[in-house]
Write a structure and sequence with these properties.
The structure is a single chain. With 126 residues, this protein is mainly α. The chain has one domain. The protein is built from 4 helices and no strands. The relative contact order is 0.11. The mean pLDDT is 86. It binds zinc ion.
Length: 126
């Protein structure tokens, strides 16, 4: 009889551990996806934006600090018009970094709007 009770206690403890792990994982997913959404922080470099009002998202899709907005616009010019690099670091790898970062942000947006993400938030956020 004592063994049955011990097994039930152990199963309950394991269930609580699984729930706690799921809660931590949901929190990590939510924290990762909130990155880049703060209107007072640059979506690209994360620095606080002190301009008042913050630099508008337009024509950029995300809120950028001044230098990141200039870099984003340089990337857009390079993609649309080509031409020589505007700075020595504007290499093919730099352009690929911007291309990949923008796609990463779009993928985050798509996931945030998915039913699975909404369910995750409903079930695991306090
Ligand atoms: Zn920035």
């Amino acid at each position: 009889m004592a063994e049955v009770i011990d097994l039930q206690r152990r199963a309950g403890a394991q269930q609580k551990q699984r729930q706690a792990l799921a809660q931590r994982r949901a929190g990590a997913v939510a924290a990762a996806l909130s990155c880049g959404l703060c209107p007072r922080r640059c979506a690209h470099c994360g620095l606080a934006i002190e301009e008042e009002p913050p630099i508008a998202s337009s024509p950029a899709p995300y809120t950028f600090c001044g230098p990141c907005l200039e870099e984003y616009q340089a990337f857009c010019r390079r993609e649309q018009e080509g031409g020589p690099p505007e700075a020595f670091w504007h290499s093919p790898q730099w352009a690929d970094m911007w291309r990949t970062w923008l796609e990463h942000m779009r993928a985050n947006d798509r996931f945030r709007r998915s039913p699975e993400f909404l369910r995750l938030m409903e079930e695991h956020q306090d």
